[in-house]
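hey can u check if this looks right to u? its 543 residues, i copy pasted from the old doc so theres a chance i mangled smth
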Amino acid sequence: MNDHQPLRRWAIGAALCLALSCPVMATANEPTSAALQQALAQQLQRQEASLPIASFYELRGGQPAWQELQRVESLVSALNTLVDDGLTPDDYQASSLLGDFQQSQQLDEQAQARFDVRATRSLLLALDHLSIGKVDPRRVEPNWDLPRPARRYALPRVVQAVDGGEVEQALSLARPDTAAYVQLRNALAHYRRLAEQGSVPYLPGRDESLRPGDIDDDVQTLRQRLTLWGEPHLLAADSSAYPMIGVQAAGGDRRTFDRELEQAVMRFQRRHQLQEDGVVGERTRLALNMPVSARVDQLRINLERARWIRPSLDRTPNVWVDIAGYRLHYTRPNGEHWDARVVVGSPSRETPIIHSSISHLTVNPSWTIPPTIMREDVLPRVRQDTAYLTRQNIQVVSLSGETLDADTIDWQRPGGVMLRQVAGSSNPLGRVVVRFPNDDMIYLHDTPARGLFQRDHRALSSGCVRVEGVTEFAQLLLQDSGSRYQLSSLINSGRSDQNVNLPTRIPVALHYLTAWPNREGDVVFREDIYRRDAALLAALETA
């Protein structure tokens, strides 16, 4: 509904009622003077249409909403809870509303009407930011492929909550109610509390890693850092000192790297997507020394991303690739979950954010080498030795599909040719490709290099996503979409480039998240492999 339409209807009706002295139905607890109603109508005629302000007042019968101290206090209290969503309450004037209300009550009806509309704008802006995000993702993600969604809350229920003085309930109507969002929000509150505690010494750099069995002064500092990050049992501390430097070890020599400390290191490594070996090497040391404020910012950033991606995770079935988490998650039609490790694009060839639907599979695929890989990876090798093409089962093909003799090509200037690797065990696409429409030619696929899935850092591909156990995944897609095909039969037939359509397309999304809960509900912090966090944090601060 155009926001001006209810405004015009209500303003005309209010003017007629004022002229004829007819009664106006009010939903507020106290009657409103005709002068204040008229002042409110005048204020509404000046409002922009970006927020449903006029619709809000139409649902209230044209009555002001914020002329009682208790209700304004409820609004301020609710806006202050937005800090746990990673938002800034003062963006919604939380610190000034109460004083402005009290001042307006000492002035005329125009001042009171101005305040009322201002308070409503603060509430509706907060609802928008909770519902669809504060930052338009297209500002910080150049390849974002979706328009901003519609508001995901019911305005009549918001009005009902306001009338009942339950403004926090109104905010909850817009706030994502997914388990992941709740866990991120709880984690932010926890890390804010940590940030308020005393400083803890940093673990110094070392030529050698700290290992179980070591006896060293740095082990004492390690205990203190781990205590800060949620392992209080490692130190027997007075509550007034925790987690300050002077606390004592929970038993034995606090300089000894014992079994209990090793287990705590492994839990920390698990929560920070590090190799779980119990050894404090360089990457683990850097994670331990991360300022708490940096983790607070990381959580704020990913709460915003959670508000963006909420629609793509609400559907069943759905497939989503957690790029920075190196995981694929498939929620099947029956609610069962299938997960797998993945390899994603390297920092120089990033896997983009994508929202699409899986349309078909390609079984025993050949591989037409993309232009970037051909130019940067393959041509330098071919120029040194044209036999490289034969060893890799790569054909030279014209743009029309005709097979060409590699020895007739000027490989210094090979324009007008493509390189295609035939299906087989050395083909980088493996035995199956999962395809979905997108502008970046990205797909999910098999790989012969299965050892890559054992690595902790898996940003190694040229942009497409390699999936561990992709043949099982592909068979589930066939089964869940109602296909009659069996993947094993298709693979064993030996026919190359078999395209098999899914009778029902399955939604797929590729998202970039640097902090996200795991299946156990623990928030895992990931490396910002594509260096995207800083731009979003800056946008949150300035939007």
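The first strand starts at residue 235 and ends at 236.
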